[in-house]
Amino acid sequence: MTGTLVLAGTPIGELADAPPRLATELAAADVIAAEDTRRLRRLTQGLGVTPTGRIVSYFEGNEAARTPELADALAGGARVLLVTDAGMPSVSDPGYRLVAAAVERDIKVTAVPGPSAVLTALAVSGLPVDRFCFEGFPPRKQGERLSRLREVADERRTLVYFEAPHRLDDTLAAMAEVFGADRRAAVCRELTKTYEEVKRGTLGELAPWAAEGVRGEITVVVEGAPDAGPGDLGPEELVRRVQVREEAGERRKEAIAAVAAEVKLPKREVFDAVVAAKNAAKNAARADPSAGK
Question: What whole-number distance in Å separates Cα of residue 210 and Cα of residue 187?
Answer without folding.
Answer: 9
